[in-house]
Amino acid sequence: MRKIISGKVREVYDLEDGRMVIVTTDRMSAFDVILPTMITDKGRVLNALSNFWFDYTKGIVKNHMISSSLDDMPADFHGPEFEGRTILVKKLRMIPYEVIVRGYMFGSMYEAYKKGEPFLGHKFEREYKQAEKLEQPIVTPSTKAAEGHDVNVTLQYMKDDLGEELGSKIERAALEIYKKCYEHAFKNGIIIADTKFEFGLDENGELVLADEVLTPDSSRFWDAEKYEVGGSPASYDKQFVRDWLKANNLAGDPNIKAIPDDVVARTAQIYRECERRICGK
Fold it and tell me: Which residues pair with 228 in a beta bridge?
Protein backbone atom coordinates (compact mmCIF):
# COMPACT_ATOMS: atom_id res chain seq x y z
CA MET A 1 0.00 0.00 0.00
CA ARG A 2 1.25 3.47 -0.86
CA LYS A 3 -0.20 6.96 -0.72
CA ILE A 4 -0.48 8.29 -4.27
CA ILE A 5 -2.43 11.52 -3.75
CA SER A 6 -2.61 14.07 -0.97
CA GLY A 7 -5.10 16.52 -2.46
CA LYS A 8 -6.92 19.59 -1.28
CA VAL A 9 -9.42 17.43 0.60
CA ARG A 10 -8.71 13.73 -0.03
CA GLU A 11 -5.92 11.26 0.72
CA VAL A 12 -5.72 8.39 -1.76
CA TYR A 13 -3.93 5.09 -1.13
CA ASP A 14 -3.16 2.49 -3.79
CA LEU A 15 -3.54 -1.07 -2.45
CA GLU A 16 -1.71 -2.25 -5.60
CA ASP A 17 -4.28 -4.95 -6.31
CA GLY A 18 -6.68 -2.94 -8.48
CA ARG A 19 -8.25 -1.20 -5.47
CA MET A 20 -7.73 2.10 -3.69
CA VAL A 21 -8.73 3.61 -0.35
CA ILE A 22 -9.93 7.22 -0.31
CA VAL A 23 -10.06 9.19 2.94
CA THR A 24 -11.99 12.45 2.93
CA THR A 25 -10.50 14.93 5.39
CA ASP A 26 -11.97 18.04 7.04
CA ARG A 27 -9.72 20.30 4.97
CA MET A 28 -11.30 23.21 3.12
CA SER A 29 -9.94 24.83 -0.02
CA ALA A 30 -11.09 28.13 -1.50
CA PHE A 31 -9.65 30.20 -4.34
CA ASP A 32 -7.09 27.41 -4.93
CA VAL A 33 -5.71 27.71 -1.37
CA ILE A 34 -5.99 25.03 1.31
CA LEU A 35 -7.20 26.91 4.37
CA PRO A 36 -5.31 26.48 7.65
CA THR A 37 -8.39 25.65 9.73
CA MET A 38 -10.37 22.41 9.51
CA ILE A 39 -14.17 22.43 9.17
CA THR A 40 -15.64 20.09 11.79
CA ASP A 41 -16.97 16.80 10.28
CA LYS A 42 -16.81 18.19 6.75
CA GLY A 43 -15.14 15.03 5.49
CA ARG A 44 -17.82 12.79 6.94
CA VAL A 45 -20.55 14.91 5.37
CA LEU A 46 -18.90 14.88 1.94
CA ASN A 47 -18.39 11.13 2.18
CA ALA A 48 -22.01 10.50 3.22
CA LEU A 49 -23.35 12.61 0.37
CA SER A 50 -21.18 10.96 -2.28
CA ASN A 51 -22.07 7.49 -1.01
CA PHE A 52 -25.77 8.38 -1.11
CA TRP A 53 -25.54 9.65 -4.69
CA PHE A 54 -23.41 6.71 -5.87
CA ASP A 55 -26.17 4.36 -4.73
CA TYR A 56 -28.92 6.62 -6.08
CA THR A 57 -27.43 6.78 -9.59
CA LYS A 58 -26.06 3.25 -10.02
CA GLY A 59 -28.89 2.46 -12.43
CA ILE A 60 -27.63 5.15 -14.81
CA VAL A 61 -23.91 4.37 -14.80
CA LYS A 62 -21.60 2.13 -12.77
CA ASN A 63 -19.49 3.75 -10.05
CA HIS A 64 -16.18 2.97 -8.41
CA MET A 65 -17.55 2.11 -4.95
CA ILE A 66 -16.69 -1.28 -3.47
CA SER A 67 -17.36 -0.73 0.24
CA SER A 68 -17.66 1.89 2.94
CA SER A 69 -17.07 -0.63 5.76
CA LEU A 70 -13.71 -0.38 7.48
CA ASP A 71 -13.84 -4.16 7.97
CA ASP A 72 -13.23 -4.54 4.23
CA MET A 73 -10.11 -2.38 4.32
CA PRO A 74 -6.55 -2.96 5.51
CA ALA A 75 -5.98 -2.77 9.28
CA ASP A 76 -4.29 0.61 8.86
CA PHE A 77 -7.77 2.11 8.33
CA HIS A 78 -9.58 0.52 11.28
CA GLY A 79 -9.14 3.45 13.66
CA PRO A 80 -12.03 5.71 14.72
CA GLU A 81 -10.51 8.63 12.81
CA PHE A 82 -11.35 6.81 9.55
CA GLU A 83 -14.96 5.98 10.45
CA GLY A 84 -17.51 7.61 8.16
CA ARG A 85 -14.92 9.25 5.92
CA THR A 86 -13.24 6.29 4.17
CA ILE A 87 -14.21 4.22 1.13
CA LEU A 88 -12.75 1.29 -0.77
CA VAL A 89 -12.96 1.78 -4.53
CA LYS A 90 -12.00 0.21 -7.82
CA LYS A 91 -8.94 1.72 -9.47
CA LEU A 92 -9.78 3.19 -12.88
CA ARG A 93 -8.14 4.73 -15.90
CA MET A 94 -9.41 8.25 -15.29
CA ILE A 95 -10.81 10.45 -18.04
CA PRO A 96 -8.66 13.64 -18.07
CA TYR A 97 -11.65 16.00 -17.87
CA GLU A 98 -13.99 17.35 -15.24
CA VAL A 99 -17.49 17.22 -16.68
CA ILE A 100 -19.44 20.28 -15.54
CA VAL A 101 -23.22 20.36 -15.85
CA ARG A 102 -24.82 23.81 -15.59
CA GLY A 103 -28.53 24.21 -15.05
CA TYR A 104 -28.72 27.93 -14.28
CA MET A 105 -27.41 31.15 -15.80
CA PHE A 106 -24.74 32.01 -13.29
CA GLY A 107 -21.04 32.62 -12.70
CA SER A 108 -18.69 32.80 -15.65
CA MET A 109 -21.47 31.77 -18.01
CA TYR A 110 -23.56 34.77 -16.96
CA GLU A 111 -20.55 37.07 -17.38
CA ALA A 112 -20.11 35.89 -20.97
CA TYR A 113 -23.84 36.10 -21.64
CA LYS A 114 -23.99 39.74 -20.44
CA LYS A 115 -21.31 40.62 -23.00
CA GLY A 116 -23.29 38.93 -25.76
CA GLU A 117 -20.60 36.26 -26.14
CA PRO A 118 -21.13 32.51 -26.61
CA PHE A 119 -20.05 30.43 -23.62
CA LEU A 120 -17.80 27.51 -24.53
CA GLY A 121 -19.70 26.89 -27.75
CA HIS A 122 -23.16 27.52 -26.29
CA LYS A 123 -25.28 30.38 -27.63
CA PHE A 124 -28.41 31.57 -25.86
CA GLU A 125 -31.23 32.81 -28.08
CA ARG A 126 -33.64 33.92 -25.36
CA GLU A 127 -33.08 36.49 -22.62
CA TYR A 128 -31.92 35.40 -19.18
CA LYS A 129 -31.54 37.07 -15.84
CA GLN A 130 -28.84 36.13 -13.35
CA ALA A 131 -29.54 32.81 -11.61
CA GLU A 132 -32.42 31.98 -13.97
CA LYS A 133 -32.97 28.32 -14.84
CA LEU A 134 -31.83 27.30 -18.32
CA GLU A 135 -34.32 25.74 -20.69
CA GLN A 136 -32.07 22.68 -20.71
CA PRO A 137 -28.91 21.99 -18.68
CA ILE A 138 -25.64 22.08 -20.63
CA VAL A 139 -22.31 20.27 -20.36
CA THR A 140 -19.06 22.27 -20.32
CA PRO A 141 -15.93 20.19 -19.62
CA SER A 142 -12.63 21.40 -18.25
CA THR A 143 -9.19 19.87 -18.52
CA LYS A 144 -7.72 18.55 -15.26
CA ALA A 145 -4.50 20.45 -14.68
CA ALA A 146 -1.77 18.83 -12.56
CA GLU A 147 -0.79 22.31 -11.43
CA GLY A 148 -2.53 25.68 -11.60
CA HIS A 149 -6.03 26.25 -12.90
CA ASP A 150 -8.15 23.84 -14.92
CA VAL A 151 -8.97 25.09 -18.42
CA ASN A 152 -12.58 25.27 -19.60
CA VAL A 153 -13.10 23.77 -23.07
CA THR A 154 -16.03 23.14 -25.37
CA LEU A 155 -17.93 19.87 -25.33
CA GLN A 156 -16.84 19.28 -28.91
CA TYR A 157 -13.20 19.70 -27.89
CA MET A 158 -13.60 16.84 -25.39
CA LYS A 159 -15.41 14.68 -27.96
CA ASP A 160 -12.71 15.31 -30.55
CA ASP A 161 -10.06 14.33 -28.00
CA LEU A 162 -11.75 11.23 -26.57
CA GLY A 163 -13.68 10.16 -29.65
CA GLU A 164 -17.29 10.94 -30.48
CA GLU A 165 -18.66 7.70 -29.01
CA LEU A 166 -17.03 8.00 -25.59
CA GLY A 167 -17.53 11.77 -25.44
CA SER A 168 -21.24 11.42 -26.19
CA LYS A 169 -21.59 8.61 -23.65
CA ILE A 170 -20.05 10.85 -20.98
CA GLU A 171 -22.34 13.74 -21.95
CA ARG A 172 -25.47 11.55 -21.72
CA ALA A 173 -24.45 10.04 -18.39
CA ALA A 174 -23.65 13.45 -16.86
CA LEU A 175 -27.00 14.93 -17.93
CA GLU A 176 -29.00 11.90 -16.76
CA ILE A 177 -27.30 11.92 -13.37
CA TYR A 178 -27.82 15.67 -12.98
CA LYS A 179 -31.51 15.53 -13.90
CA LYS A 180 -32.31 12.58 -11.62
CA CYS A 181 -30.43 14.04 -8.65
CA TYR A 182 -31.75 17.55 -9.28
CA GLU A 183 -35.31 16.29 -8.79
CA HIS A 184 -34.45 14.56 -5.49
CA ALA A 185 -32.61 17.57 -4.12
CA PHE A 186 -35.33 20.00 -5.23
CA LYS A 187 -38.01 18.01 -3.40
CA ASN A 188 -35.86 18.45 -0.29
CA GLY A 189 -35.35 22.19 -0.60
CA ILE A 190 -32.03 22.36 -2.47
CA ILE A 191 -31.47 23.57 -6.02
CA ILE A 192 -28.42 22.07 -7.72
CA ALA A 193 -27.42 25.01 -9.91
CA ASP A 194 -24.33 23.31 -11.31
CA THR A 195 -21.94 20.50 -10.48
CA LYS A 196 -18.94 18.59 -11.75
CA PHE A 197 -18.46 14.89 -12.36
CA GLU A 198 -15.41 12.75 -12.96
CA PHE A 199 -15.42 9.50 -14.88
CA GLY A 200 -13.01 6.68 -15.57
CA LEU A 201 -12.84 3.46 -17.55
CA ASP A 202 -12.66 0.04 -15.91
CA GLU A 203 -10.68 -2.97 -17.08
CA ASN A 204 -13.37 -3.71 -19.68
CA GLY A 205 -13.40 -0.17 -21.04
CA GLU A 206 -16.79 0.57 -19.47
CA LEU A 207 -17.62 4.06 -18.23
CA VAL A 208 -17.56 4.43 -14.43
CA LEU A 209 -18.51 7.38 -12.21
CA ALA A 210 -15.74 8.21 -9.72
CA ASP A 211 -14.26 10.73 -7.27
CA GLU A 212 -17.03 12.64 -5.43
CA VAL A 213 -20.62 13.21 -6.51
CA LEU A 214 -22.87 16.21 -5.91
CA THR A 215 -21.30 17.50 -2.71
CA PRO A 216 -21.16 21.13 -1.55
CA ASP A 217 -17.48 21.08 -2.59
CA SER A 218 -18.16 20.02 -6.18
CA SER A 219 -21.50 21.77 -6.72
CA ARG A 220 -23.37 25.02 -6.33
CA PHE A 221 -26.32 24.29 -4.00
CA TRP A 222 -28.98 26.95 -3.46
CA ASP A 223 -31.70 27.18 -0.82
CA ALA A 224 -34.92 26.62 -2.80
CA GLU A 225 -37.04 28.56 -0.28
CA LYS A 226 -34.90 31.69 -0.61
CA TYR A 227 -34.20 31.38 -4.33
CA GLU A 228 -34.92 34.44 -6.46
CA VAL A 229 -34.01 35.21 -10.05
CA GLY A 230 -31.86 38.29 -10.59
CA GLY A 231 -29.27 37.99 -7.82
CA SER A 232 -26.94 35.60 -6.02
CA PRO A 233 -29.11 33.04 -4.18
CA ALA A 234 -28.42 31.83 -0.63
CA SER A 235 -26.30 28.71 -0.84
CA TYR A 236 -25.62 25.37 0.87
CA ASP A 237 -21.99 25.18 -0.16
CA LYS A 238 -18.64 26.78 0.68
CA GLN A 239 -19.75 30.16 -0.65
CA PHE A 240 -20.07 31.30 2.99
CA VAL A 241 -16.31 30.86 3.46
CA ARG A 242 -15.54 32.41 0.07
CA ASP A 243 -17.61 35.47 0.99
CA TRP A 244 -15.77 35.85 4.31
CA LEU A 245 -12.39 35.59 2.57
CA LYS A 246 -13.37 38.21 -0.01
CA ALA A 247 -14.80 40.55 2.62
CA ASN A 248 -11.49 40.38 4.50
CA ASN A 249 -9.28 40.69 1.40
CA LEU A 250 -7.94 37.18 1.94
CA ALA A 251 -9.20 35.47 -1.24
CA GLY A 252 -6.31 33.48 -2.71
CA ASP A 253 -3.88 34.55 0.04
CA PRO A 254 -1.61 31.55 0.79
CA ASN A 255 -0.43 33.18 4.03
CA ILE A 256 -3.80 33.27 5.79
CA LYS A 257 -3.31 32.30 9.46
CA ALA A 258 -6.71 31.03 10.59
CA ILE A 259 -10.45 31.04 10.00
CA PRO A 260 -12.53 32.45 12.93
CA ASP A 261 -14.45 29.98 15.09
CA ASP A 262 -17.83 31.45 14.16
CA VAL A 263 -17.10 31.08 10.42
CA VAL A 264 -16.00 27.48 10.97
CA ALA A 265 -19.12 26.70 13.03
CA ARG A 266 -21.49 28.28 10.49
CA THR A 267 -19.81 26.47 7.59
CA ALA A 268 -20.02 23.13 9.42
CA GLN A 269 -23.70 23.80 10.11
CA ILE A 270 -24.35 24.49 6.40
CA TYR A 271 -22.68 21.22 5.39
CA ARG A 272 -24.61 19.19 7.98
CA GLU A 273 -27.89 20.78 6.89
CA CYS A 274 -27.12 19.80 3.32
CA GLU A 275 -26.58 16.18 4.39
CA ARG A 276 -29.77 16.19 6.47
CA ARG A 277 -31.89 17.43 3.58
CA ILE A 278 -30.47 15.15 0.90
CA CYS A 279 -29.78 11.97 2.87
CA GLY A 280 -32.66 12.38 5.30
CA LYS A 281 -30.47 12.23 8.41
Answer: none
